[in-house]
Amino acid sequence: LKAKYLGQIAGAADENALETIRLAAVGKKGEVALKMRELGKMTPEERQVAGPALNALKDEINSALAAKKAALADAALDARLRTEWLDVTLPSRTRRQGTLHPVSQVTEEVTAIFAELGFSVAEGPRIDTDWYNFDALNIPGHHPARAEMDTFYMHRAPDDDRPPHVLRTHTSPVQIRTMEKRGAPLRIICPGGVYRADYDQTHTPMFHQVEGLAIDKDISMANLKWVLEEFFSAFFEINGIKTRFRASHFPFTEPSAEVDIQCSWVDGQLRIGEGDGWMEVLGSGMVHPKVLQAGGIDPNDWQGFAFGMGIDRIAMLKYGIPDLRAFFDSDLRWLRHYGFAA
Ligand code: PHE
């Protein structure tokens, strides 16, 4: 019996075969169990010999089964390892990864620099009422600035009595919305898309601005100048960039200034922060009392500065890009050339 089963176990091809052998040998109705039952008919002397022998046989078969089972599992694993191997030295399949658009990258840079200066980000809708875009900013209906801005008006049916909406022509309406929402004091920037009907090498109908607004008890133009010089030095990675303030006019600031940064041209190449040339980069001024009022802030208690600058424009300056329109062509060769895409 022992030889028969140990032989069968050794020859078992897989776990199923092994289980069949186990049932036949040491299962409840197996051959060993049957022999055990016969013990009852034996004489005590016979039983004393046969009992331990059968138990030993059962143990031996069980341990042979366990050993074979382990050997089969090992063999199965070996077989899998032989067929399912991976060559980890093979080059990986290339995966194309998207990158942020240069305007988004520059917006993030700008946001990070102003965050260090204590400015948080505020946002407003790109489609806004003409009240937020114009009236609240001290640009009444007849004002020439409305015509100058080449505004896109939303079409309205004659019986539609909702207030007129426009594609915002600048980020300045976010000044009003944030004053209404948060009150004074404020220290915010508002980056985002704006729209004007204009198209040439330096104008696209959609472009991006970042508005800045600081309101407190004793904010002055000196604070404005310091903040801007800190910003441009960080943005262009040049210590101590100089700015030049030129008197200007905006309906929503008084006084108003256009701001230039120091630059020069060397061999037809623009160098920011060097030499004695100037490049206009933004409009700014002290927030007009009427604008504070429109935003629900008392101009007797509070004052502040505001500025608005073209994000695409400073991106062009930083990366030496001659044509604004290229930003919005989605030409991968162009994006790669300037290192904006992989
Ligand atoms: N909104 C102005 C523009 O688009 C820029 C500006 C913002 C000027 C804030 C002064 C203060 O040209």
From TrEMBL:
InterPro entries: aa-tRNA-synth_II, aa-tRNA-synth_II/BPL/LPL, Phe-tRNA-synth_IIc_asu, Phe-tRNA_ligase_II_N, Phe_tRNA_ligase_alpha1_bac, Phenylalanyl-tRNA_Synthase, tRNA-bd_arm
Keyword line: Aminoacyl-tRNA synthetase, ATP-binding, Cytoplasm, Ligase, Magnesium, Metal-binding, Nucleotide-binding, Protein biosynthesis
Residue stretches in coiled coil: none
GO terms, molecular function: phenylalanine-tRNA ligase activity
Ranges of residues in domain Aminoacyl-transfer RNA synthetases class-II family profile: 104-342
Required cofactor names: Mg(2+)
Class of enzymatic activity (EC top level): ligase
Cell compartment(s), UniProt: Cytoplasm
Catalyzed reaction equations: tRNA(Phe) + L-phenylalanine + ATP = L-phenylalanyl-tRNA(Phe) + AMP + diphosphate + H(+)
Complexes and interactors: Tetramer of two alpha and two beta subunits.
Family under the similarity heading: Belongs to the class-II aminoacyl-tRNA synthetase family. Phe-tRNA synthetase alpha subunit type 1 subfamily.
PANTHER family reported for this sequence: PHENYLALANINE--TRNA LIGASE, MITOCHONDRIAL, PHENYLALANYL-TRNA SYNTHETASE
HAMAP family: Phe_tRNA_synth_alpha1
The protein's name in its UniProt record: Phenylalanine--tRNA ligase alpha subunit
